[in-house]
Amino acid sequence: MKSDQFILLEDEYGAHNYKPLDVVIERGEGVWVWDVDGRKYMDCLSAYSAVNQGHCNPKIMAAMFEQARRLTLTSRAFRNDQLGPLYKELCELTNSHKVLPMNSGAEAVETAIKAVRKWGYQVKGVPEDKAEIIVCRNNFHGRTITIVSFSTDPTSTAGFGPFTPGFKVIDFGDAAALEAAITKNTVAFLVEPIQGEAGVVIPPKGYLKDVRRICDEHNVVLILDEIQTGLGRTGKLLAEEHEGIEADLTLIGKALSGGFYPVSAVLSNTEVLGVLKPGEHGSTFGGNPLACAVARAALKVLKEDGLIENAATLGEYFKEGLKKIDNPKIKEVRGRGLLLAVEFSDDAGGARQYCERLKDAGLLCKETHETIIRFAPPLVITKDNIDWALERIIPILSE
Fold it and tell me: Is the same domain home to 339 and 314?
């Protein structure tokens, strides 16, 4: 079948909750993907940073096939031989004390919310059902009812109420606003170190250090959502490392499996996750042996193949190349590592038109918030790959 036939099938039988570019991909390798008509494209989205290790990474694939031949699922009613080693490797890599594995990023966020509320009641002494969690405007943490309850994006909330109470919204990047919002019932501050879905919004230098200090002074749990920014994307293993801090809870997902399988995790100190007792939280698939084997291989590839260092070096090179675009309607080029964005002014006619032209030129990326294009290729990208991309990006975005 041709692309247009696959598109017709999706439109007829699928829910219309996405607005994808009209490309039907059937195969991927490294930074490249091919559509059903045989056209080749460079992927500059990486499945929203889920394939940091490149499409169909052979080392992760081998680990997945080997584990799939042995054991795929036991549920957490029993133990398996992959879970303990994953816990140890994650804790040693990230300086964490405890790990709670889940499947999706949204599940990791929900897990953190439950854990810090229970910690607030049992440890901090907050009155029952009065716990407050502070979040930031323009956040994106997932799409469950509780998570969209504290979204400020009308598209995420319109028509989905009633919403879960217990959240307070402040401006991102404003440490003083955080301190002013804290009350005796505040149990946690949930924040992205860089707001990815909002358009790669980077907070002022020193913001995370101030946040860490404020949370310590007020006995508030700091939760960093590193589901998109973590695991090498910004040129560090975790984005928190750019300011030399450690969160109390860190949420990871996406690239934790290199795109092979849904895997996420809550990394925590002992005090917070220690409040959860048997039967109080879990998941049939969370921590299954196939997921754990894949995650162990994905982490190994990030470390041993130098992908974190590659993101730091080539991210800066890519950003400098993007800054050569000559278009007065570009407001800003920004980013950290290989998480980059080009933002257009409101009168530029929207960013999607450029994404469609880039697709026709053999490069796939996606607009966010109407006026922003995010560039986030797999971390296996080379300098030659970036030069190839810039040869297409610069003239198209200069129009």
Answer: yes
Same domain (yes/no): 48, 167: no
91 and 161 co-located in one domain: yes
Number of structural domains found in the chain: 2
Closest by CA to 51, choosing from 67, 66, 32, 64, is 32
The answer to whether residues 50 and 76 belong to one domain is no
Q: Which of 278, 304, 330 is the last residue of a domain?
A: 304
The reply to whether 254 belongs to the active site is yes
- Going residue by residue through the chain, which has 399 residues, state the pLDDT in tens, using 9 for 90 and above: 999 999 999 999 999 999 999 999 999 999 999 999 999 999 999 999 999 999 999 999 999 999 999 999 999 999 999 999 999 999 999 999 999 999 999 999 999 999 999 999 999 999 999 999 999 999 999 999 999 999 999 999 999 999 999 999 999 999 999 999 999 999 999 999 999 999 999 999 999 999 999 999 999 999 999 999 999 999 999 999 999 999 999 999 999 999 999 999 999 999 999 999 999 999 999 999 999 999 999 999 999 999 999 999 999 999 999 999 999 999 999 999 999 999 999 999 999 999 999 999 999 999 999 999 999 999 999 999 999 999 999 999 998
Q: What does the angle CA 243 – CA 247 – CA 248 come to, to the nearest 5 degrees? A: 160
Write down the catalytic residue from 140, 150, 189, 344: 140
**Does residue 140 have an active-site annotation?**
yes
Contact 290, 68 (CB under 8 A): yes
Boundary residue ending a domain (304, 326, 349): 304
Q: What is the pTM of this model?
A: 0.97
Query: Which residues constitute the domain of residue 177?
Result: 58-304
Are 337 and 249 in the same domain? no
Are 278 and 383 members of one domain? Answer: no
* Catalytic hit among 98, 118, 236, 254: 254
- In one letter, which amino acid is 358? L
Question: Quick one: 31 and 85 in the same domain?
Answer: no
Task: Give me the CATH number covering residue 144.
Answer: 3.40.640.10
Judgement on whether residues 106 and 136 belong to the same structural domain of the protein = yes
CATH number at residue 332: 3.90.1150.10
Catalytic residue of the set 35, 43, 174, 225: 225
